[in-house]
Design goal:
By secondary structure, this protein is α/β, with parallel strands linked by helices. Helices cover 42% and strands 14% of the residues. Strands 3, 4, 5, 6, 7, 8, 9, 10 and 11 form a 9-stranded mixed beta sheet that branches. Strands 12-13-15-14 form a 4-stranded antiparallel beta sheet, covered by helices on one side. A two-stranded antiparallel sheet has the order 1-2.
Length: 470
């Protein structure tokens, strides 16, 4: 073995042993030269070799770092198989009972739906908001009524354009967060008693919205990595009067699945053939770990059937409650729904975020956020692999901030939730993501919070609780 290969092998062992962890910075070329009494060329060759093996990555002007996404030891869950037929929803009380139990700030938030506040530029956003409030024109209380602030809608349209989608600001309706957007979309295309298609598992807020509107749902199987089954969806469209599809195509909550670009085009073609609108909840699209963003569905929406719902809550401004719908042919219906539902979204917040998008360095913030989330994902994966028992399966996402775990068959996730909560740890049990309360031995874990000793201990404790039930 040559000297540079020997240096590479030593470094690789430090990574595999966990001494060097994902996101850690390697010694600079100069420091490595001094440490090993070798030439810069030898160090550079060693680092190039490690980079070619996918173990480290170079960051401009920063040096070399251990890559966040190394190999996976645990197998991934299989395609889901929800019970067939339409379902009358009765889930809200059950979901609220689970969610109300994890509000304590002293709880380790592995079950949280939110990332850590420290990941976001609240100080800078606060300055933009204060400036917007100081120069607020009273006339804007009228001009910024739905569809919303003109400059904000223009800035959002520019972000669509950067993703290859030509979206007119006229079809964008600003909302008080993505949840309001989803409700407005459902109201625009359904009536009580109608049937909609959802993924299985699915985000519980979509179940709650559907229940509130008196809708029935049909659950479509999905794969935790590849997303919704298109063959099962086509069968459902052929057999049932589906009025709309409510899907998360990019880094779905709870599984983290990503529908590949080719399959996304196939999905849109299928819905076009049946003339069924797609309500896409796309709040995690900016949180991709790869350099290339996933295909934006609006780039393929020639018929205006896609109601693309997103917000700044997950990628920039949690708590500001500002989202939007790129509504296609349904823009006017959703604008009217917005006027009658909540009248308007906070005008100072609209102005502040429009200014931030122009001058605040949003893309720079996103690059840092993605890197931190990828590092935190790798840390949580490593902890689960270390502490959870044999029989555990793990779906590893390519973005977002959730891990989906399938536990050994004898483990009851609801019991596990109660046992963990008593020890100061929250988890999101699988049944809250199902209209029929399936996934009784599944968990969603949040990696949107930085690694810490408390998190490491919490994962170890969860592993022991799972093993005790196995």
């Amino acid at each position: 073995m040559s000297l540079y290969q020997d240096i590479a092998a030593q470094t690789e062992k430090l990574i595999s042993d966990g001494v060097l962890r994902p996101g850690d910075r390697l010694p600079s070329v100069r420091k490595a030269c001094r440490t090993h009494a070798i030439s810069p060329i030898t160090v550079t060759q060693a680092y190039y070799l490690l980079e070619s093996r996918g173990l480290i990555e170079a960051r401009p002007k920063s040096g070399y770092f251990v890559r966040a996404r190394l190999g996976q030891k645990l197998p991934e869950p299989m395609m889901t198989h929800p019970a067939g037929g339409a379902t009358e929803l009765q889930v809200s009380d059950f979901i609220f009972q689970i969610l109300d139990s994890v509000r304590d700030p002293g709880i380790v938030p592995l079950g949280s739906s939110f990332p850590a506040a420290g990941l976001f530029p609240f100080d800078k956003l606060g300055r933009f908001l204060a400036n917007a409030a100081r120069r607020l024109d009273p006339q804007s209380t009228l001009s910024d009524l739905p569809p919303g602030n003109e400059e904000l809608r223009r800035q959002i349209a520019l972000r669509y354009l950067a993703q290859g989608a030509s979206v007119s600001p006229q079809e964008i309706v600003v909302t008080a967060g993505a949840m309001e957007g989803l409700n407005l979309c459902l109201q625009a295309v359904t009536r009580p008693g109608d049937l909609i298609a959802i993924e299985s598992p699915t985000f519980y807020a979509g179940l709650q919205a559907s229940e509130r509107l008196g809708l029935r749902v049909i659950e479509i199987p999905s794969h935790p990595r590849e997303g919704v089954s298109l063959s099962a969806l086509e069968e459902a469209l052929r057999q049932h009067p589906v009025k709309a599809c409510l899907f998360m195509l990019n880094f779905a909550n709870p599984t983290g699945s990503l529908l590949a670009d080719a399959r996304k085009r196939e999905l849109l073609g299928l819905l076009r053939r049946y003339q069924v609108p797609l309500i896409e909840d796309d709040v995690y699209a900016e949180l991709h770990f790869d350099r290339q963003a996933p295909l934006c569905s609006k780039a393929e929406d020639g018929d205006g059937l896609v109601m693309h719902v997103s917000s700044f809550s997950k990628c920039l401004a949690p708590g500001y409650r500002l989202g939007w719908v790129a509504a296609g042919r349904y823009a006017e219906a959703i604008r009217r729904q917005k006027l009658s539902f909540s009248l308007a979204t906070s005008v100072p917040v609209q102005i502040a975020l429009a200014d931030y998008l122009r001058h605040g360095g949003f893309d720079s913030h996103l690059r840092q956020l993605r890197r931190k989330l990828a590092e935190q994902e790798a840390g949580l994966v490593a902890a689960v692999e270390q502490h959870f028992p044999e029989g555990t399966r793990l779906a590893r996402p390519q973005g977002g901030y959730f891990l989906w775990l399938e536990l050994p068959p004898r483990v009851d996730a609801l019991r596990l939730h109660k046992e963990a909560l008593a020890l100061g740890i929250s988890v999101a049990p699988g049944p809250i993501f199902s209209a029929k309360r399936e996934f009784r031995h599944h968990l969603r874990l949040n990696f949107g919070h930085p690694d810490s000793e408390a998190r490491q201990q919490a994962v170890a404790t969860l592993g022991r609780l799972v093993a005790a039930q196995s």
